[in-house]
Amino acid sequence: MSKLHIVANRLPYSIKKEDDEIELIASVGGLATGMKSVYEDYGGKWIGWSGLNSDDLEEKESQKIDSLLGEKNCVTVPLSENEILEYYEGFSNKTIWPLFHYFTQYVDYTPANWETYKKVNQRFADKVLEVCEEGDTVWVHDYQLLLVPEMIKSKKPGVTVGFFLHIPFPSYEVFRILPWRMELLKGMLGADLLGFHIYDYERHFISSVRRLYGYEINFNQINLEDRVIKVDAYPMGIDYDKFVNASTDIMHKSIHERSDLHKELEKYFLMAPQRRLVLSIDRLDYSKGIPQRLKAFGNFLRKYPEFRGKVTMIMLAVPSRGHVEEYQKLKKEVDELVGNINGEFGKVNWVPVWYFYRSLPFENLIELYASCDVALITPLRDGMNLVAKEYVASRITGTGAIVLSEMAGVSKEMGEAITINPINEDEIADALYKALTMPVDEQKERMQLLQHRIQRYSIFKWASEFVNDLNKVKELQQEFLAK
Ligand code: GDG
Q1: Nearest to residue 468, comparing CAs of 245, 121, 232?
Q2: Which residues contact 452 (CB under 8 A, 6 or more apart)?
Q3: How far is the CA of 282 from the centre of ligand 1 (A)?
Q4: Phi, then psi, of 231 in degrees rounded to 5
Q5: C-alpha separations of 98 from 71, 90, 196, 284, 470 in Å
Q6: N or C, fewer C-beta in 10 Å, the chain?
Q7: Which atom of ligand 1 is nearest to 409's Cα?
Q8: What is the helix (H) or strand (E) element at residue 183, kind and residue range?
């Protein structure tokens, strides 16, 4: 039977290394959850990086890690310190990430980073070629590995290759800025099926292919001389039931069983019954529009003074890419803005912004989703944004409202949210007012529609639909070859 293998920058396990003890910790992230259902069913391997610097590992340790991961059907791609710097922090996170999120002013064009990106992509492809046979299927993920599809296809044309991009694909006018635009597109075009979160990214990609390569394109099919490539939109979903169940469990916990955070949240509401909580959760990333959101919240408190003392914003900013200069600057800016708002509006018994700069355990995340009246999700650009879907799934009472950026891929599926332009701080302030004063019946009506939609297109549906389409493309290729 032909197999299906997954290739992603990271493996679905992280490694805990203490003295001589090495432990694997399974990732609970969305991708790991969705892919688990796919690659295990198809008896394939997951090829990726362990997250460790190979320069720091003794040979015996590397062997032990490889063998533990091997037992989980994972194949490690080792990365040295310099490769982490140039391939991962460099070309992936300082070149592609800002460019694809329209932050052209942050793009770094260091040629050495590009050289290492190519070298590391080749190493990933070589590992894939070692484990897969002609007739197998390979599903490659995300912007760190844009060259891998072609590197596989050129060596083993009988392997069916799928590629999914988790971030936006920018418009041609932005993509063309990149000196290595031709090579990146060529790399992606090694795939037989290319998936994007939404139709806009698909359209941008097709437009770049048409303008830079001049290939013939019929709707979502790119016709090459020897094969065809399909391009389509697959909006990634979540493990909906996991959030419903976790939220239900939390609701049923007795006072003694509740976490400290949960008790604090309840205390906050007890202090004054009309109090409200607004939730903000992201990785601390400039694409997420965190400073703009804070300024908009300050604006809201200025414009609607009746809410002072009654609304608190809980802001969870998860540390991310701290070695990259732009992220360090962002951290400073956010710290200052939180301080300014709390300084300007805070009272002895009321803090306007509760700020957590850390990652919280899953249980706390659910408590936040379940307790907050409004989710304020205002990225400047976001491929999808799963937080919005997780909030919807966790609202088992059926209440709650979402203020959502029109720049997030998820906004295409959430017509019932209050959509805003994330640069427009005044519009966000008014949207927040609307969300906080929305009648309960209207909240429930909107939430019910959202819940049905998000439940239907879960992470499992997303993964199986992509794999089904990959299988269809495989048949199409065979017909094409037989002609
Ligand atoms: C990329 C694209 C696209 C957050 N804080 C904590 C925590 N989280 C979890 C959330 C959610 C995930 O992290 C964040 O997912 P997003 O989709 O919002 O954002 P990115 O990390 O930027 O992901 C994005 C995604 O890929 C999938 O394709 O949607 O557009 O940028 O699942 O729950 N989890 C825990 N503690 C936290 O403090 N446990």
Answers
A1: 232
A2: none
A3: 7
A4: -130, 135
A5: 37, 11, 18, 14, 30
A6: C
A7: 30
A8: helix 181-188
- ipTM, 2 dp: 0.98
**Could you tell me whether strands 221-223 and 160-164 are parallel, antiparallel, or unpaired per DSSP bridges?**
unpaired
State both tokens at 269.
Answer: 């509401």
**pLDDT at position 41:** 78
Q: pLDDT (tens digit, 9 = 90+) per residue, 88-115? A: 999 999 999 999 999 999 999 999 999 9
Greatest alpha-carbon pair distance for the chain in Å reads 78
Asked if 239 and 274 touch (Cβ cutoff 8 Å), the reply is no
Token code pair at residue 191: 């795939």
CB neighbour list of residue 19: distance below 8 Å, 6 or more residues apart: none
Beta-carbon count within 10 A of 354 CB: 16
Residue 161 token pair: 């290759």
Is residue 460 a contact partner of residue 239, using CB atoms and an 8 Å limit?
yes
Read off the pLDDT of each residue in 341-368 and give the average, rounded to a whole number: 95
What gap in Å lies between CA 393 and CA 222, rounded to an integer?
A: 37
| Residue 143 and residue 121 in contact, taking contact as beta carbons nearer than 8 Å | no
Residue nearest (by alpha carbon) to ligand 1 atom 3: 384
Is pLDDT above 90 for 27? Answer: no
Going by alpha carbons, the residue nearest to atom 7 of ligand 1 is: 359
Contacts for 290 with CB less than 8 Å, ≥ 6 apart? 280, 282, 284, 315, 317, 330, 334
Per residue in 371-429, pLDDT tens?
999 999 999 999 999 999 999 999 999 999 999 999 999 999 999 999 999 999 999 99
Residue 361, both tokens: 């355990």
Residue from 27, 93, 97, 386 whose mutation best tests the ligand 1 pocket (most atoms within 8 A of CB): 386
Closest ligand 1 atom to residue 360 Cα is 38
Nearest Cα residue to atom 15 of ligand 1 = 386
Q: Which residue type does 271 have?
A: M
pTM over 0.80: yes
